[in-house]
């Protein structure tokens, strides 16, 4: 039995990545790995987790008693490489799907080699293209890691673009749909609460009253918020223009009705937009680094071939 090297099949990486896309847990912060693996059973790092009988590198050695073994350490190295730069949780089911696909690919790849397909000109072109794809991806991930914004850069961007992070302080009341006590109409309740909010009653007490009348036993959401136009749904964009004391119409979707009372303009705290700014600054730095790498190497395309209509 042969234990494969750490350099696992690169094509498996590109084909399998879609099958092992991690479940989302938190928003991705580009340039920082946030992938978590649910704890597998206690298996030593050098223990076999995939065994494929009859698959060997040397053609002369291919027999029923030969095989390929993938250890836990090697398999988890593959997962780490596939998930580099991504976020989420890799579940046992995802690991199992990848393992099954990888095992099948080892068998298919050996059969292709025995048929001489690895010598085929089309295969050689595709392998070269796949190699360039992997190298490009790894280079960009390396650049992204090196260009990770510092706290100083994030704070400077926030200060230089302060107008983008000016929002409006509001009080929001939510009336959930699909759950109400007998005799309580959510639409009627929303209209009544909205009028009382406009008349100056306390938003927190009104929100609690609404939840009580609807039969909710849980704590209602906070009413005080700072919002920006670009964080609001399209139908609620007018909220960003509310004057002090002005109350918005009742907005509704499938899950809830809500309305807002304007309290005046307010800067969105840096901590609330830090991840957003980090992504923006990082993107700018990565684009700049990519431009520097490509400098002097921009491809020249034959316009007649790629856009024949341009010459007519």
The biggest sheet, with number of strands, parallel, antiparallel or mixed sense and barrel status, is: 4 strands, antiparallel
Which structural class matches the secondary elements? alpha/beta
**Any idea how many domains?**
2
Average pLDDT score: 84
- Please tell me how large the radius of gyration is: 29 Å
Oligomer: single chain
Can you describe this structure?
By secondary structure, this protein is an alpha/beta fold. It has 2 domains: 125 residues, no CATH class; 106 residues, Chitinase A, domain 3 (Roll). The strands form 3 sheets. The protein has a 4-stranded antiparallel beta sheet with strand order 7-6-9-8. The chain has a 3-stranded mixed beta sheet with strand order 1-4-3. A two-stranded parallel ribbon has the order 2-5. The longest helix is centred in the middle third of the chain and has 26 residues.
Secondary-structure map with pairings?
Elements: E1 2-3, H1 10-16, E2 34-37, E3 48-53, E4 67-71, H2 72-83, E5 87-90, H3 92-114, H4 121-146, H5 151-160, E6 166-176, H6 186-198, H7 203-214, E7 224-227, E8 251-252, E9 256-267, H8 270-294, H9 303-306
Parallel strand pairs: 1-4, 2-5
Antiparallel strand pairs: 3-4, 6-7, 6-9, 8-9
Helix pairs in contact: 5-8, 6-7
């Amino acid at each position: 039995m042969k234990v494969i090297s750490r350099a696992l099949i690169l094509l498996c990486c590109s084909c399998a990545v879609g099958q092992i896309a991690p479940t989302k847990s938190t928003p991705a912060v580009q340039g920082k790995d946030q992938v978590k693996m649910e704890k597998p059973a206690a298996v030593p790092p050098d223990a076999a987790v995939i065994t494929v009988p009859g698959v060997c590198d040397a053609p002369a050695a291919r027999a029923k008693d030969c095989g390929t073994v993938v250890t836990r350490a090697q398999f988890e190295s593959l997962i780490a490489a596939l998930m580099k730069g991504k976020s989420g949780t890799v579940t046992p089911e995802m690991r199992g799907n990848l393992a099954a696909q990888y095992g099948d690919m080892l068998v298919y790849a050996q059969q292709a080699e025995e048929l001489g397909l690895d010598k085929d000109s089309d295969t050689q072109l595709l392998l070269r293209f796949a190699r360039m794809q992997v190298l490009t991806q790894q280079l960009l991930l390396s650049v992204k890691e090196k260009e990770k914004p510092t706290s100083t850069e994030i704070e400077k961007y926030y200060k230089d673009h302060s107008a983008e992070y000016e929002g409006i302080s509001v009080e929001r009341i939510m009336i959930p749909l699909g759950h109400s006590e007998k005799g309580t109409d959510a639409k009627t309740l929303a209209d009544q609460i909205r009028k009382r909010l406009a008349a100056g009653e306390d938003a927190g007490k009104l929100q609690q009253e609404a939840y009580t009348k609807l039969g909710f036993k849980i704590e209602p959401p906070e009413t005080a918020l700072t919002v920006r136009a670009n964080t609001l749904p399209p139908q609620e964009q007018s909220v960003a223009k509310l004057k002090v004391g002005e109350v918005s119409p009742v907005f509704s979707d499938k899950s809830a009705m809500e309305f807002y009372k304007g309290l005046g303009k307010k800067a969105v705290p840096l901590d609330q937009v830090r991840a957003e700014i980090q992504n923006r600054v990082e993107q700018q730095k990565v684009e700049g680094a990519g431009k520097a790498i490509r400098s002097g190497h921009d491809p020249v395309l034959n316009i007649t071939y790629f856009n024949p209509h341009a010459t007519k």
